[in-house]
Amino acid sequence: MNVGEPEVAARLIPALPRGGYLLGDKQYDSNPLHDIALECGYQLVAERKRPGTELGHRRHSPGRLRSIELLQKDFGKDLYQYRDNVERHFAWLTNHGGGLSPLPNWVRRFSRVRCWVQAKLIIHATYVHLYHGPPVLAVA
């Protein structure tokens, strides 16, 4: 990628169906991203980039202030723990032999990347189903 993940998130959030919570790590803690999430009906929950410091005198997004407040309460802490589960699953998906390993040289155009990723996801889901049983789905 030639742009940072928060910039990509800013473009992807409006394409999501409306409403819910979005979980992100410290790099997603920015007022513009919290504003975009709030405008689209989401509450972005991200740890502060600089914990233990004051917020300063600039305007802060209501979504960012709410995120800070949420992470101090049990509900927010429990919610944020789901992020670890997602990270673990993505790590397994990308590090597993049949998973999303680096793309081969011939997979560079969007149509080929899409087919490659779809095939790898199917292979990985089949592996998980065969060796670990049907997945337990959790909706947060």
Can you tell me about this structure?
- With 140 residues, the chain is mainly alpha-helical.
- The chain folds into two domains: 1-80, no CATH class; 96-140.
- Helices cover 51% and strands 7% of the residues.
- The protein is built from five helices and two strands.
- The chain has helices spanning 5-12, 31-39, 62-70, 74-95, 110-132; strands spanning 20-24, 42-46.
- It has a two-stranded parallel ribbon with strand order 1-2.
- Strand 1 (20-24), helix 2 (31-39) and strand 2 form a beta-alpha-beta unit.
- The longest helix has 23 residues, at 110-132.
- The model has no long low-confidence stretch (mean pLDDT 85).
Map the helices and strands.
Blueprint: H1 5-12, E1 20-24, H2 31-39, E2 42-46, H3 62-70, H4 74-95, H5 110-132
Parallel strand pairs: 1-2
- Count of domain modules: 2
Main sheet strand line-up = 1-2
Number of H/I helices: 5
What Rg is obtained from the alpha carbons, in whole angstroms? Answer: 18 Å
**Total E-strand runs:** 2
| Average predicted confidence as pLDDT | 85
Task: Give the termini separation.
Answer: 29 Å
Strand percentage lies at 5-15%
Helix and strand composition category: mainly alpha
Unreliable segments of 5+ consecutive residues: none
Spatial shape: globular
Largest sheet: number of strands, sense, barrel closure = 2 strands, parallel
Helix content: 40-55%
Succession of helices and strands: HEHEHHH
